[in-house]
Amino acid sequence: MTRPRVMGIVNLTPDSFSDGGQLATVEAAIAHGLRLVEQGADMLDVGGESTRPGAEPVDGTEELARVLPVIAGLRARWDGPISIDTLKPVVARASVAAGATMWNDVSALGASPDSPAVAAELGCDVVLMHMQGEPRTMQVDPRYNDVVTEVRDALLHRAGVAMAAGVARERIWLDPGIGFGKTLAHNLALVANLSALVETGFPVLFGASRKRMIQTVDTSATDPLDRLGGSLALALEAARRSASIIRVHDVRETVQALKVQAAVSQQIEAGL
């Protein structure tokens, strides 16, 4: 079993569901990112606009002001992969110029008609995430006939759009979008059937860290900071199902859990 890479979250928004407003200065954000690297993060994901359920859009100028100094500061101190979590092509272009190497788009390059062409122009890795609806309304009444098949097919369609625009296949990652226009039953089905995405041949990014589905299972976990156990359980399940990247807030604990899981798996594979 190959251990997936861990993506540490550097959240620069004041209103995100879990850690909004905690990194109030550029210096604090850079220090947080470097601390995640020290804890074992293989890559960092920098975001300046909340996509939590009910979130309002952020002006591009404001988003750029949040993310660019942090990306540039991280790049000056670290040479590892940095992802920009944004819907906007203008933010992606400026972020790559500042040192980002991946565009993580919750709209799967669908928020702007320019997004696929810009992704091709940038030549960076691109994460295509599935979302039903938009952040403001996606959790109102999400419905699917077959969530696993529909999410897979929708992502394959977006991958086709990206490749038609010139994005190299080997640059594309798929993300099932846990919590983005899905009920608990939908989320659990996607975790249990993550192989449906893995079998497409595209590497899979999985992110369920501190999400509300954990509270839905354990009603005592009303505070996102109290969802570490559930986050680790989901990360281990995703790793067992061959996710390539796990996106998390709690890097140290996740890296430790994945290391122990991998050690046990090695023993099983060796027949010991």
Give the CA-CA distance, first to last residue. Answer: 15 Å
How many domain units?
1
**Can you identify the CATH superfamily?**
Dihydropteroate synthase-like
Strand order of the largest sheet: 6-5-4-3-2-1-8-7
Number of strands: 8
Structural class: alpha/beta
Strand content range: 5-15%
Radius of gyration: 18 Å
How many DSSP helices? 10
Q: Can you write the helix and strand succession as a string?
A: EHEHEHEHEHEHHEHHEH
CATH topology heading:
TIM Barrel
Share of helix among residues? 40-55%
- Return the average pLDDT rounded to an integer: 93
Shape verdict = globular
- Give the low-confidence spans: none
Level-1 CATH class name: Alpha Beta
Largest sheet: 8 strands, parallel
CATH architecture: Alpha-Beta Barrel
In short:
The protein is of the alpha/beta class and 272 residues long. It has helices at residues 26-38, 60-77, 89-98, 115-122, 147-164, 184-192, 195-198, 212-217, 228-240, 251-269, and strands spanning 5-11, 43-47, 82-85, 102-105, 125-129, 172-175, 205-207, 245-248.
Structure description:
Helix content is 43%, strand content 13%. With 272 residues, it is of the alpha/beta class. Strand 2, helix 2 (60-77) and strand 3 (82-85) form a beta-alpha-beta unit. The two termini are 15 Å apart. The relative contact order is 0.14. The mean pLDDT is 93.
